[in-house]
Amino acid sequence: MDEEIRGLLATMVGGEQEYEAMFADKERMETGAQQLTDLLNSVPRAAIGTENFQSLFITTAADMRIILLMIARSLIAMRRYDTEQPNTTLVEEAANLYAPLAHKLGLYQVKTELEDLSLKFSEHDVYYHIAHELNQKKRERDAYIARFVETIEERLHQTPLKYHIKQRTKSIHSIWQKMQKQHVDVDGVFDLFALRIILDSPAEREHADCWQVFSIITDMYQSNPKRMRDWLSKPKANGYESLHITVKGPDEKWVEVQIRTERMDDIAEHGLAAHWRYKGIKSTEGGIEAWMANIRTALETGDKEPVTGLVEDEVFVFTPRGDLFRLPMGATLLDFAYAIHTQVGNHCTGGRIGERHVTLKQKLQSGDHVEIHTSNNQSPKQDWLGIATTSRARAKIRQSLKEAEAGRITLARELLERKMKNRKVEYSEATLMHTIKRLGYKVVTDFYRAIAEERQDVNQVLEAYQAQQRHERGEDEVVTRSASDFVMQQETENEKTHGHSDVLVIDQNLKGIDFQLAKCCRPIYGDEVFGFVSATGGIKIHRTDCPNAQAMRERAPYRFVKARWASKHGNQYSITLHIVGQDDMGIVNNITSVISKEEKMLMRSINIDSHDGLFSGHLTVMLEDTDRLNGLIRKLKTIKGVKNVTRV
Hints:
Blueprint: H1 3-13, H2 16-22, H3 26-42, H4 51-60, H5 65-79, H6 88-104, H7 108-122, H8 124-136, H9 138-156, E1 163-169, H10 172-182, E2 193-199, H11 206-220, E3 222-223, E4 229-230, E5 243-248, E6 254-261, H12 262-270, H13 272-279, H14 285-301, E7 314-318, E8 324-328, H15 333-340, H16 342-346, E9 348-353, E10 356-358, E11 370-374, H17 391-422, H18 429-438, H19 444-452, H20 458-473, H21 483-488, H22 493-496, E12 503-506, E13 515-517, E14 529-533, E15 539-543, H23 549-555, E16 560-565, E17 573-582, H24 587-596, E18 602-611, E19 614-623, H25 626-638, E20 642-647
Parallel strand pairs: 2-6, 12-16, 13-15
Antiparallel strand pairs: 1-2, 3-5, 4-5, 5-6, 7-8, 9-10, 9-11, 14-15, 14-16, 17-19, 17-20, 18-19
């Protein structure tokens, strides 16, 4: 291993002896480092700076010593960076991955150096501008700090506390971040430097002495409570302990003051190595394992509160665009779809991992690149609750199922109300509730659900409803049958297989049914027809081969009702025929002659155009039924020159 990397690692883990104990298995370290390098090379660059990728990176490195090795290699590479052969990938990884990891471990010197070097090579002009400004005002800054320290020391000398004071200027990267956030130049960053008051206190007096100094300083100078940081009461996961306050010093300038003990300062400088040295963990095998476990805890939590569960309980998967998602171990493709967006989950039909097509049930693994397939025809199913594992996905599925059921119940209610309106049955909420109870339903939603699922016939409901009305009026319940009821008994064999069917019988003598013949297809007696309930509540009758039938069925299938002809009653219907053929002399006279000879048939209009020896036109006649229509078409086709006759 490179001597410079070796020395840096020894510093990280607390000394040469600790390094030898921890990194004895060089082959294992190299294998693990190569695995992490392969991971970095396989993911989109935009993902590397995310918190989720850091978690994936930590998960992939089963041995936490490999994380330290990768941080050390990154810092050494940045120190040796060749500006003649720039490597943006190296700079991005140092700034977006290794510096945050070093920060979580308490390796603040390493973190600061990585950030400053990254800024130096990525924002050259900015870096040197800040460095120049700091150097230009160093004498002025040193003089101010000396004045400020002098006033504090006067008060501290009056106490029995043992202490010394160090000063530090904020890192160039930290200053640049403040400039970006506050939209100011270097002069506008008010806390360019910080003082550290380091106390030599016995273990039992550490906290009390720190708070005593805090009290002295805040009595002397106005503090900014928003910038108060108490890492004494609750240290960071990496062992960092300190009190941070920002006070307004002489000349109304803000100064950050950090209060800590010698032990705390050692941990702040050397991170977890120093922290666990004070904890008494030795470089034995058991001690190494304990030290490693706490490295993992620090990496998982960072500056946050410790979380329950380890990173191994999670998987990290990528979208095709490179976005990284964190999911619990055992999560399925369906969970991932809902993690992206509710609508993606609701319409998910499957997906693809790499080149492999997978189902909703597919369990995901860390590092998977997952593409979700959707369809507008797909909707959540009850069995999806057995596939989804995350609380988010299960909640969204339940919500969608509930909304779908509410929609079906609404349609069922509309269907019943429409039937009542068509039969001119007076609606009463109280009567309906009694009817529902008489039909054996305890819950209203169960009643409407039965209608929606076609387990409850609407005609039976209407009969029961009218019987309830008669009962409420005190009338004898005499069984009567309407003309429509009588006709509906004459079911075809096909209808009988489906139980009671809702049949609309067209008969102008039948009262209570409001219908019109659709102008788009102009049905006549003998055509196969269906009814479509219009927005106004009336019924329009269409031919089953109507060109608009498919679109209407897709848009509003619940508005379809069955219909058939009861009798002709001598009615005549308007139909239009399209005729084409050769433009022979007298062709129009021959066509009109055929029609005039037909009994009970009236020609209303004829329009013929001819061009280049051919003719085409439209003929409108009034007739009774399809038998007369088909007979007319056959006769017209026998006329010399007529090539084809079709119904429009």
